[in-house]
Structure formats: C-alpha cells, structure tokens
C-alpha cells in the first residue's frame, strides 16, 4: 500500500518560517509530479506548489516568492519551505504524488497555524 507521511506543521508567528516534509513509501513506480495543496476551514482545497520529475516547479500566485518546493527522487520525498508566513496561510497542508498510470496518492494532512 502506498503511504505518504507528512511532518513539519505547527504554530508559527506571522513572518516566521516552517518546513514541511512528505515521504512516500510502498509499491510506487513511474513517479511523476509531486506537490502540495492546502485547505483552510470552510474553503476548497487549493494547489500550492507542484514539482515535476524533472524538477520544474509551479506555484500559486499567493505563495510566489515566499514558498519553495523541492524533491529528492532517490528518497521519494517532497519538501515545502515556507517563509514570510501570513495568517492567511493557516490551513491543513496535504502532499500528493502522481505515479503509475494516472494514479494519485495523498498524505493525511498537517496543520499549519500562523498566529501571534
């Protein structure tokens, strides 16, 4: 069974930083894109950042210049470095992995709270 385990969430003050990590395990093959979504209370799940197997990245406008996504293909991990955090970044963050033939697996989510 494919599992994605996230870590690194927590409470941080505005202007602070957090680094989220996601590790995938199980019978994974033909890994393609990896990325992060987030969902705030009462809102839809939005894409935050995506990184392809070749290392190309794409970011939502609301995090450009503040967040950086990276991956380690040998370890099947994807990280999200979040700087200059704002209260509106408060959400549950989910990592995902596209693999095989049009398969997508999700992590369980990690809470990020930005508050003074």
Describe the structure.
This protein is mainly beta. It is built from no helices and eleven strands. It has strands at residues 3-7, 10-12, 18-25, 34-39, 46-51, 57-59, 67-72, 77-82, 91-99, 103-106, 110-114. Strands 2, 4, 5, 6, 9, 10 and 11 form a seven-stranded mixed sheet that branches. The chain has a four-stranded antiparallel sheet with strand order 1-3-8-7, with no helix packed on it. Strand 9 (91-99) and strand 10 (103-106) form a beta hairpin. It is globular, with a radius of gyration of 14 Å. The relative contact order is 0.32. The model has no long low-confidence stretch (mean pLDDT 96).
Core attributes:
4-stranded antiparallel beta sheet, 116 residues, mainly beta, 53% strand, globular, 7-stranded mixed beta sheet
Order of helices and strands: EEEEEEEEEEE
What is the CA-CA span between the terminal residues?
A: 40 Å
Q: What's the oligomerization state?
A: single chain
Number of extended strands: 11
- Number of helices, where a helix is a run of at least 4 consecutive DSSP H or I residues: 0
Q: How many whole angstroms does the radius of gyration measure?
A: 14 Å
């Amino acid at each position: 069974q494919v599992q994605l385990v996230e870590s690194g969430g927590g409470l941080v003050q505005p202007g602070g930083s957090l680094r989220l990590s996601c590790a995938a395990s199980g019978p994974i093959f033909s890994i393609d894109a990896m990325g992060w979504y987030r969902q705030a209370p009462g809102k839809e799940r939005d894409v935050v950042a995506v990184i392809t197997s070749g290392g190309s990245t794409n970011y939502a406008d609301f995090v450009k210049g503040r967040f950086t996504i990276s991956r380690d293909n040998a370890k099947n991990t994807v990280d999200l470095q979040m700087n200059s955090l704002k209260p509106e970044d408060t959400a549950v963050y989910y990592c995902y992995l596209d693999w095989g033939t049009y398969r997508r697996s999700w992590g369980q989510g990690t809470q990020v709270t930005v508050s003074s």
